[in-house]
Amino acid sequence: MTSIAIPPGMPQYGDVPRYDVAKVRADFPILDREVNGHRLVYLDSANTSHKPRQVLDVLAEHYAMHNANVSRSVHTLGTEATEAYEGARAKVAAFINAPSADEVVFTKNSTEAINIVAYAFSNASLRPDADPRFRLGPGDEVVISEMEHHSNIVPWQLLCERTGATLRWFPVTDQGRLDESGLAELVTERTKIVSMVHMSNILGTVNATSRITQRVREVGALLLLDCSQSVPHMPMDVVDYDADFIVFTGHKMCGPTGIGVLWGRSELLAAMPPVLGGGSMIETVTMAGSTFAAPPARFEAGTPPIAEAVALGAAVDYLTGIGMRAIQWHEKELTAYALDALGTVPGLRIFGPAVPVGRGGTISFALGDIHPHDVGQVLDSLGVQVRVGHHCARPVCTRFGVPAMTRASFYLYTTTEEIDALVAGLEQARKVFD
Amino acid sequence: MQLDQLYQEIILDHYKHPHGRGLRDADDPADRVAEAHHVNPTCGDEVTVRVATDGEVLHDVSYDGMGCSISQASASVLHELLTGRDADEAYRVHEAFVELMSGRGQVTPDEDVLGDGVAFAGVARYPARVKCALLPWMAFKDAAARAGVGVSPSEVKA
């Protein structure tokens, strides 16, 4: 790598926020274990992240000391559980700079969060008195992109089938960037919502959203950003991004599985009809009909994942304590290192941006003609855990003409030594199959 | 983990030099021909298996597909083991292979029945890869049924 002198007066490299990675790693018990006789090298954090002791402790303590149902009990335990649950909501809101904690709806995961929005459209489309922004029919359009995770494709396909609306999408360039060249023709007065990924789970691309946001505002559509891969890895400010909805999931950001987030502008959430019906989401119920609670409760029918939400709050505290800007820089350095290192492997082809700009620490590649399953198997025999397959983004694989890809993804605890282990493992795979 | 238990020479050899690859028309125009296309939704592997039969003998078991070494080698072995067999014999081989793959490494394969298929004994220890090995065999089962020769009724949960 070449080093470039940064002119005086500009932000210097040393000014970048940093943290002690070894100290962070010590917080994650699982990083001490061995796999197949080798030290664990976990390069699958885009799939799910590991959990620090600070989060595991909160999860255990909630069940051990504060377990009760929320929002319905007058007793002490119920009050403690409710305070912890609502406290987690406030932490999550602050984490993404949401103007109000009431704009944070707890869901099961990103998939459920997207489905809530899609079904709100669906339900509104059946009611003539519903807010017209959520009413869809023939002639209306929904816009996504070719680089979406299946969770941001299938709900909209189903919605369009139900309503007669048309699904359209941004293509992807050969470099793995979003092709915005057709923006003006793609996002038009017919567009009701643009739902797109902020950071691709397969290409690693971080999409620049401002031009799209501007166009969305011009045509009066809504914008949903799938931030499943971005919120865990970089600072997020929903006001700054000027989105209408964002979704993300707890388990990719040091939190437990079973908890996700739908953030929406309060006036939009208030205009959305309910999706799941049941307890906790009502205002009053008679045998003849019901009225519904204000958001976020309107979208949280039934007993929610209480302990998971509380532990997500602990994960937010943990990440905030280290600093999202510092985590982002750590991963940027790792990505630069990994792109260089992978470039030394003969026959390796990277899918997605080849430079560490406008991309995150998720790198998919092909190793010659060796099938990703086989690559992953050889790596696993050396303790290196990567994801192989179509990564729930099959259209991206199709776009690049491969049935599957191998993906290495990094997080705050990943080290350059682990990337070295990956590269050594790839050499091993070439030996087995060449 | 012993990687060579999984990637036995026989498997790598079938993968690098597949036998009978490519979908073929029947030599005998009187044959019934049917095919089935199976995919592994978790990894995107695909295989098409075509059977040409007069109802008793499997005159040809041809295939095409793309996927990992295990699935592609398995298709090559499938072709080699079942082409030219009576449907009844094919049934027994199919059953033996499915049993081997479902055995979590506890089944000792019979080389007289399974031939090169015995090399897949190691694969049975890797639950994530059992589906790869079975993909062409399950496609074959559907193709054979469509061609009017029932093979191995057992469904496999892998």
UniProtKB/TrEMBL annotation, chain A:
The residues covered by the Aminotransferase class V domain are 41-422
Cofactor(s) it depends on: pyridoxal 5'-phosphate
Q: Which GO terms describe its biological process?
A: cysteine metabolic process
EC top class named in words: transferase
Q: Which family does it belong to?
A: Belongs to the class-V pyridoxal-phosphate-dependent aminotransferase family. Csd subfamily.
Matching entries from InterPro entries are given as:
Aminotrans_V_dom, Cys_dSase_SufS, PyrdxlP-dep_Trfase, PyrdxlP-dep_Trfase_major, PyrdxlP-dep_Trfase_small
Query: What is the E.C. number?
Result: 2.8.1.7
NCBIfam families in alphabetical order: sufS
Please list the reactions this protein catalyses: (sulfur carrier)-H + L-cysteine = (sulfur carrier)-SH + L-alanine
Q: For this protein, what is any one GO molecular function term?
A: pyridoxal phosphate binding
Pfam families referenced in this protein's UniProt entry, alphabetically: Aminotran_5
Name the UniProt record assigns to this protein: cysteine desulfurase
Q: Which UniProt keywords apply?
A: Pyridoxal phosphate, Transferase
TrEMBL record, chain B:
Listed NCBIfam families: SUF_scaf_2
- Membrane-crossing segments per the record: none
Question: Which biological process annotations from GO are given for this protein?
Answer: iron-sulfur cluster assembly
Q: Which GO terms describe its molecular function?
A: iron ion binding; iron-sulfur cluster binding
Question: Highest taxon of the source?
Answer: Bacteria
Which Pfam families does the record cross-reference, listed alphabetically? NifU_N
**The protein, known as:** SUF system NifU family Fe-S cluster assembly protein
The NIF system FeS cluster assembly NifU N-terminal domain, residue ranges: 7-132
InterPro entries cross-referenced by the UniProt entry: NIF_FeS_clus_asmbl_NifU_N
